[in-house]
Amino acid sequence: MQTVKVLPKGQITIPKDVRKHMGIKVGDTLVIEEADDKVVLKKGKTIFDYAGTLPDIGMSINEMREKAIEEAAKDRA
After folding, report:
1. CB 47 within 8 A of CB 61
2. Are 14 and 28 in contact (CB under 8 A)?
3. What is the pLDDT of residues 11-54, one digit of tens each?
């Protein structure tokens, strides 16, 4: 078990050996879960992780992302 220090803005540094073991790279998405008195970090997935596996609907991943953002903004209005 390793310890990390929480910085003033709530940031922590994941130790290098843990990042290497888990395959965590710059730009990866992590999911944080609370469980009783524990905090669990897991590798997350974004739409970019599915690039090449989704059916071709005539839009690039970036175009799909922009459309999703536009639709989400409409829902909030």
Report:
1. yes
2. no
3. 999 999 999 998 899 988 888 889 889 998 888 777 666 667 76
Q: How many residues does the chain have?
A: 77
Backbone angles phi, psi at 42, to 5 degrees: -130, 150
CATH code reported for the domain at 1-44: 2.10.260.10
Kindly list the domain boundaries of the chain, sorted by start residue.
1-44, 47-77
In one letter, which amino acid is 22?
M
Q: Where are the alpha helices (DSSP H) in 3-60?
A: 16-22
Q: In this predicted model, what pLDDT tens digit does every residue of 62-72 receive, in sequence order? A: 888 888 888 88
State the SS3 of 45-57. CCHHHHCCCCCCC
